[in-house]
Task: inverse folding
């Protein structure tokens, strides 16, 4: 069962937490490749794109991990987590592909990823306002 009591009896959705942990691992790995790997960007603009991709990747990874502790119905958490995961893949992934792998085709995908990231935040805010607190 994914919904289990966590530390001090707090709610934990282990699936969402696992996705956040995996995302953090990927973010660290790609940030290291971007900074030190053989495909490290040399132009300042490319470095800024990688920095932006990494920053938003890490921020949403931490948000995913925090979301795992939100005691709302599973469907709220999974919907938000899915939006953020798609957003991370499309936004950060397209910037990684543009700068680290020299691919130009993902450029138009970046703003779509940003929309998914925003949808996740809107979803959490909406859920927070409509979901009743547990007693």
Result:
């Amino acid at each position: 069962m994914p919904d289990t009591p966590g530390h001090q009896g707090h709610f934990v959705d282990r699936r969402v937490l696992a996705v956040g942990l995996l995302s953090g691992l990927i973010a660290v790995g790609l940030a290291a490749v971007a900074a030190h790997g053989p495909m490290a960007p040399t132009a300042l603009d490319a470095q800024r794109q990688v920095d932006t991709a990494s920053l938003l990747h890490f921020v949403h990874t931490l948000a995913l991990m925090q979301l795992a502790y939100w005691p709302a119905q599973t469907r709220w958490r999974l919907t938000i987590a899915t939006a953020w995961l798609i957003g991370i893949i499309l936004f950060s992934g397209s910037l990684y592909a543009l700068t680290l792998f020299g691919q130009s085709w993902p450029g138009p995908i970046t703003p779509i990823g940003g929309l998914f990231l925003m949808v996740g935040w809107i979803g959490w805010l909406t859920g927070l306002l409509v979901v009743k607190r547990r007693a």
